[in-house]
């Protein structure tokens, strides 16, 4: 499915985990200072979006379109809005987690707002893959993201069912004020997660050191 | 006010920002692998709580009480529960942000649940101070935490008012699906934030490099 890749400005010391090979139909947008991240990852962006308050380097290619920022919108939000205008409904965002926690939370709230409008966004960093789902089912394959955790982004999520996980659930009501769904693992080839009503935050993650058992 | 300090196991490469000098009436609890963080910060804990799946070092002092973990509770949640049993209603938690994002989100959901029960929790790391407020007013002094950001943890927060901030608000309804309240700054000596109905997440933060202007 055609995808819009966005690069944000969150600190990303190491970039070897970034594997983006955009197709003809894909787009790459840098949100302001995210241009440095894209460049370090060897990716040539199609667009630059932002108010450029944190992008002080000279931009060294031609296809730059600067977008005048609306007041109140974050740079990543502006980048997603621009991608939507280009016709994209599926986004993968790098450089959106880590560093200032307000930025990370802003991006989670953006996921919640966008999924209501049919826009699927995934935030990726070296240890985490963060996305939202609403009134649907997904499969989670076994992978090097060892854990998956589910959180209700609405006051409650009704009819939460987990099959093929180490901790199965059936038709459970998950609330947003008690972290019950942390550190599940795929027990078989894949797990299946579904939610009947509400918006679930789905976080797949791994420990910094693969042999270390998780603990929080 | 007497305070319970908790140390969690999130990655904290640098500890010079941790300044804890517990009084007689305070308590220090390590949540499992958080013991290593406390030790690196030069703090002697009163209690160790957790299932000790990530604390492989030999504990080198006497006052250890191991608490059998309840299924479904995270180590930090167990530590807070233990502190509540000791009579504490105010908690400051180190090592609760960074690394695995599911851990960070679990801690934010814990803040939301706890503030409903009158328990005030603050999560601290080098760049961020994260807390929740409900149906109340707070003052935010000018400090090296340059920014403050507000997010609704309930579907909406009603009657949100910001005075003395670069972006003032009056009786505003903030929703949890659009990140409007990001990167405000204290414009005068202090700012005042109040919310009439709902639970606000308040994040004070600073950039990794103080001279860098914020951008997201």
Automatic annotation (TrEMBL), chains A, B:
Q: Does the keyword Transferase apply?
A: yes
One Pfam family in the UniProt entry: TPK_B1_binding
What's its EC? 2.7.6.2
Q: Which SUPFAM superfamilies match?
A: Thiamin pyrophosphokinase, catalytic domain (SSF63999), Thiamin pyrophosphokinase, substrate-binding domain (SSF63862)
- NCBIfam families linked: thi_PPkinase
Q: Name one GO molecular function term.
A: ATP binding
Q: What is this protein called?
A: Thiamine diphosphokinase
List each copy of the Thiamin pyrophosphokinase thiamin-binding domain by range: 136-201
The entry's keywords: ATP-binding, Kinase, Nucleotide-binding, Transferase
- InterPro entries under this entry? Thi_PPkinase (IPR006282), Thiamin_PyroPKinase_B1-bd (IPR007373), TPK (IPR053149), TPK_B1-bd_sf (IPR036371), TPK_catalytic (IPR007371), TPK_catalytic_sf (IPR036759)
Gene Ontology BP term (one): thiamine metabolic process
